[in-house]
Each structure stands twice: as structure tokens, then as C-alpha cells.
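User: C-alpha cells for Orotate phosphoribosyltransferase, please.
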Amino acid sequence: MIFNKDTAEKTAELLLQINAIKLNPRNPFTWASGWQSPIYCDNRLILSFPLIRNYVRDEFSKHIEKQFGKPDVIAGVATGAIGIGILVAESMGLPFVYVRPEPKKHGRQNQVEGFLQKGQNVVIVEDLISTGNSSLLAVEALRAAGANIKGMAAIFTYGFDVAQENFKKANVDLLTLSNYQNLLNLAVAKKYITEEEEETLRDWSSKPSTWSIEV
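Assistant: Done. Predicted C-alpha cells:
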């Protein structure tokens, strides 16, 4: 679910402008999962563009407080959301922690890095949602540390059904600045892609785990 349509359209346009989202229906990317995909999203690029990172920071800060209430702590998911999470926490005047994919193998063996007290209300900032599995590992780690998860805010989601199911099972509210549907609508309107390429992109989104260019 997006925060609102205006934010979704503006965010999609900015991501396309800086090539944080690359669309290549004719020469698909291969994800770490092995899936073939005509789209690749690298939201880390946002941090290199001050005006755009400030826009994302401000939209997150505004919508997080409106939708979830002001939390006690902002948590970022390592590594992609650490940078933007810090900016959001700073803007909101809140403490910040980040969550590793797994506990460290040495030292204190922390998975949640930073100061977090049991019972504190936490909103998690994430850069990208695909299936949601890695994001929900962060939720599990924070809950194990005693946090009360108010929700997750992400920059972009592919909108897969499996992600919606995973977040529902975990009882986590997910809201995003933009999503795949708004991205495609904008990409067609601004002529980033042709109508034929749009058809390919929509076909992929209906069966991402089995899609290939030969289909």
C-alpha cells in the first residue's frame, strides 16, 4: 500500500531520472534469487543526489508520523536502508538503530545495533520490498529484542502477492513511497518504455518467479 498517489508518482519519476530503477525488458537482469527480471532497483543511488534524498527523507518523516504516530525509535534494515534511515531519524529527532541480516559472529554478537529498550515503539525503514522475507527477518530480530513494531515504511515495492501474504502473516503494516504499478504508468506516460515493453513488464509482474524472456 502506498502512502498516497502524488508521492508515489513523484518518487517513481525521481527514481527513473537517476536510474535507480532500470527497465530493460529486452535484456533481463538476473537477481540473486536466480529470477530473471526486466527491472532492477538500486535505491542506494538516492543518497548520491542531495535534493532527491532530502525529498525521500521528508516524505518518509511526514507520512510515518501521520500513519503510524511518532515512534520512539527508527530502525533501518542493513545495508540498503541504513543511510536513509539515519536521515529520517535525524529529521524526526529520534534515536536510530539498524538491523543486520544475522547476528555478528564475534564480539557481542549483536543483530540489532544501537540502543534499544524493551517496549519501545519502532518504525522500520526499508529501501526495497520484493518477497518481504529479508525485511521480515529484521522484524523478527527487533521483536526478539523487545520492540513494539508500529509498521514498516519502504521506498519501493514490486507489489508481489507473496509479499502481501508474508506481511499479513507477520502482522506488520507496510506502506511505501511508490510501487510497481505507479512506476509503469509513469514510464509509459513519460515514454521511458514502449507499449510493447509495458506488456512485457506487466507479464513479468504476474509470474516473477517463473518468467523468462523466452516466454
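User: Anything notable?

Assistant: Strands lie at 21-23, 29-30, 36-37, 39-41, 73-77, 96-99, 112-113, 121-129, 148-157, 174-179.
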